[in-house]
Design a protein that fits this description.
Layout lengths: L3 E5 L8 E5 L57 E2 L12 E3 L10 E4 L2 E4 L2 H4 L4 E2 L4 E7 L22 E5 L8 H14 L3 H6 L2 H9 L6 H9 L7 H6 L6 H12 L2 H14 L2 H27 L6 H44 L3 H49 L6 H14 L16 H19 L2 H9 L5 H29 L11 H5 L3 H50 L5 H28 L4 H12 L3 H9 L5 H26 L6 H4 L2 H25 L7 H4 L13 H7 L4 H7 L10 H7 L2 H25 L1 H6 L6 H29 L1 H16 L15
Antiparallel strand pairs: 1-2, 1-8, 3-7, 4-5, 5-6, 8-9
Helix pairs in contact: 5-11, 5-31, 7-11, 7-14, 7-15, 7-30, 8-9, 8-15, 8-17, 9-13, 9-14, 9-15, 9-28, 10-11, 10-17, 10-18, 10-19, 10-21, 11-15, 11-17, 11-18, 11-30, 12-15, 12-30, 13-19, 13-23, 15-17, 15-30, 17-18, 19-21, 19-23, 20-21, 20-23, 21-23
The protein binds urea.
The site of urea has 6 residues, from helix 8.
Membrane topology: Multi-pass membrane protein
Protein name: Urea transporter
InterPro entries: DUF6699, DUR, Na/Glc_symporter_sf, Na/solute_symporter
Amino acid sequence: MGQCFSWSAPPKRQRRRYPFAAAYRSNAFAQPYPQTVTPIYPRTAPAAYNPQLPPASPWPWAATPRTPVASWNIPPTIVINPQLSTQRNRHPFLDWDTSQPASNATARYGAVTHPLNNYHLGQTATSPPLSSMIVSLTSTAPAFPPRPIQAATNLNWPWDTIHIERSDGAALRVGDVLHAIFRHLAKDLSHRELVAMSGEEWDRVDRNFPFMIGLTAVQARYTSFSPSSSEEFSSASRSVKPGLIAAGIVSAWTWAATLLQSSAVAYKYGISGPWWYASGATIQVLLFAMIAAKLKLNAPFAHTWLEVVGARWGKAAHLVFMFFGLATNIIVSSMLILGGSATVTDLTGMSTIAACFLIPLGVAIYVVVGGMRSTLLCDYTHTTVLFAIIFTFVFTVYATSDKIGSPSKMYDLLTTAAQQAPVSGNAHGSYVTMRSKNGLIFGVINIIGNFATVFQDQAYFQRAIASQPSTTVKAYLLGGLAWFAIPFTLATTLGLSAVALRNDPAMRPLSAADVSAGLPAAAAASALLGKAGASALLVLLFLAVTSATSAELIAVSSLLTYDVYKRYINPAATETQIMRVSHLMVAFYALVIGLAGLIFFYIGVSMGWLYTFMGVILGSGVAPIALCITWSKANRMGCIIGAAAGFAAGIVAWLVTTSTLNGGVINVTTSGGDLEMLAGNLASIGVGGIIATATSYIWPEDYDFESTRAINRPAPASTESDEPKEATEKEPSIEKKVQEKAPSVADSFDAVEVEDELDPVALNKAYNFAAWSSLVLLVVLILLIPLPLFFASTIYGKAGYTTWVVIGIIWTFISAFSVVLYPLWESRDALGLISKGIIKDIFARGSGKYVEPAREAA
Ligand SMILES: NC(N)=O
């Protein structure tokens, strides 16, 4: 919303107005000052701001003696800082779309445009310094000379006066003024005022929105969030509530493997498979709650975890860990594509090559259009349908199917299957025992691999970044516990059905390769429900694959944008360039994973193989990365060497074990064995963890996390700061100035809100809560429950098995409530807002479009 402004001093001291203009981005205009120019600024600025000199360049006016500011003599003399002035040809021309945060403003001189960085925002706004002032938003230029301001006429809004005051009595700075204007325009808009806006005004707002689809269009029209800002695109303005974040975590963590590999291990090892799959991949999400709390504490404005590594340890560490980060994303994405395309081909006959490309490209479209928030909203809808389909399978198998229909019948069929083909390594060859040697080996591999894919995957950091700081921990604990039910219950249903129905004529026989490709679930779904079952599984898989792929696309896009493009190619990137590159990187990465899926498919690497392999090459980065973000003593060189040495040790251990156990034959089949993968996984995570931890104890750093907290930190416009002082002590280089003008999240926050949300005491408390609760859950899930059952060699009777199944079903219900109904409840206000807007659009005159008065989560 473009405005023009006039200035006046506080009411008691003077009421005379002075012109000041903020222009449309696309429609700059000048509001001339009187021609009498007296270089008096600054005169009596407080010490903290002294001396107030403009930067040496690139401003053309700095070429002249650096006494820059114009004033005019109408007592008491007030000089507006040139950052706020609009005097064409003499001073930079403020170019600001006031519907965007002040950080989007640019100062323009002729054809040269520069962002307003922290240095500029920290300068005193007026001379003499004033601690309060009134800014009037007016519909026409008020004076000097009385010339109408083009394109800003006919505004007749009632909220035309902003009183800006610093509570500490210090002088107002440029940032204070711009932030106050932005907050005022963003918040003080009642519905009545909104409705009173003319169509022309809305047209101006509309020009800021790009093309959007579906949910994104609804979000943009009826809420205050616009995916046209890079902050919203990559971080959903860091305002998302815990239920929706939890749904996003569930959805990003529900891979094709979660449905297919979990069922495959149920098929191979019996009931221990689903348990180890679920618990061995839940604990990492729970433990990640600690990392998330530390991230909010130590780098609250970072976009990516690699930014944190780079800020703390510099370029070498940044590049080394970028390898691990991108390798993680590529492996996870490839598994998604492999699992998705294998099942699509199996159930529909579609070409695997086509499926490899169609899945990521389809997802890329909605990611580009909607960004992070739409990804989360799609995650939510996907999770909802996902639970509905899981319940369909559960009730078919355990209640209605004439082939199985009850836990008791399932138990009988599993017992028969074990008699016909006992499971090697299981107590009495039974399917209904936790005593499963291979199940346990898989459990260990699973735990290690999933540490890597949570702790090194930007997708999970991204959800921590997108969440409200105060509720991040809650979101991760909720998300982790809710997710457990998906593989556990689905595999206990479909994976075991594939065993139970082995003698059923409708059940197709499964080869070892089919099992490795994750096909037992599809075979069971078809045998149980025919075409309907195949379709339901296809939909289930489609939802899982698309939302997890969308998480990967946006995660890699963020890494490539912020950690490659912005860090190494164009540190001065503008908001527009960042958005453009983010979009391009989504499309680029969609192609990359299509190709990766294709390559793995042709060399015969299946989803199951990759799933057990991921810890071999990724495991060594887990401890170093966790230590970097959470521990002040972590040693840089020790962590880099630990990651590299662990990587080498993992590969060597894996290959040597393969060769030793298979008479020197190393190929895809021999290297995919349980023990071979176990050796590689253990060596990788073990060596990486031991070296990183030991060196950090021997040569501890004493790091204060200041440089990571400074990543993208906005100018604290309403508090005292040393930035102006820094600027005067050491003139910032052009590059530094431009870097500081990252499109910053905090520009979209109220300063007080930021302070409250990032209160270190509260965040430390959240960290402690995350630490003890996740450790307790870890002990329960992977030690207290499974190990006594393993060592006691318990084989369940019918009642025991039924209880096991019922607990799974109850857990699934609770999960569904947590990530399907709870997000609706917590977003009831936003939903009400959207409903009202839609109803008004359809049934009433005028526009139902709405801008929320304050920034709240969707
Ligand atoms: N996300 C997993 N490991 O299913």
